[in-house]
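STRUCTURE:
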């Protein structure tokens, strides 16, 4: 498994149009699109999807546009997996990425502030595209590697499970998240980890 570094910081020279990712981060008056973790504990992986379908409908998985979205919205995740299964590290695991927003773990855990103890993985997809075999393979390899490095079985949850209707009903957030959505095959993914 190869992981490509493309950190969301003000030193990144990745070209996006007439500028660089680093300049976009700096324009937001940030050095990095992450924070220090409040503790070293990491026991959860949160699975998301993202695309630029509203910006470039003909090319919703353009890497430059995906990275620009992080800068434009001041959000981040630890990893991004492309449709081809390429894995990009965007935030170091020891740092707290901004991928969940207000959130609560499912019962009986019920911890809030899931960013504090989780690793966020974005899959390049739309609500209707589903996920490629290459993405499932890369997600499996990355997940097993994360578990090995952290020395424990991780909790795997979707963004919708921690920031969905329950989080809205509890007053934690205004809008529910729907990703990774109905097309993500949790049974297949869980089986692949065994």
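SEQUENCE:
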């Amino acid at each position: 498994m190869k992981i490509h570094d493309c950190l969301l910081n003000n030193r990144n020279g990745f070209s996006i149009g007439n500028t660089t990712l680093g300049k976009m981060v700096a324009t937001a008056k940030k050095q990095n699109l992450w924070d220090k973790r409040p503790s070293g504990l990491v026991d959860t992986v949160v699975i998301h999807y993202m695309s630029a379908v509203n910006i470039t409908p003909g090319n919703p998985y353009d890497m430059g546009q995906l990275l620009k979205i992080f800068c434009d919205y001041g959000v981040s995740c630890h990893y991004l997996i492309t449709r081809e299964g390429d894995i990009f590290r965007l935030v170091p695991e020891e740092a707290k990425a901004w991928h969940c927003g207000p959130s609560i773990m499912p019962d009986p855990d019920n911890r809030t502030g899931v960013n504090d103890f989780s690793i966020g993985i974005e899959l390049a997809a739309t609500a209707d595209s589903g996920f490629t075999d290459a993405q499932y393979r890369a997600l499996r390899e990355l997940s097993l590697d994360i578990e090995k490095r952290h020395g424990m079985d991780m909790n795997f949850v979707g963004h919708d499970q921690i920031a969905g209707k329950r989080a809205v009903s509890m007053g934690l957030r205004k809008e529910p998240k729907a990703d990774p959505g109905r097309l993500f095959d949790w049974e297949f993914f869980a089986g692949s980890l065994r």
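REMARK: The chain is about 25% helix and 20% strand.
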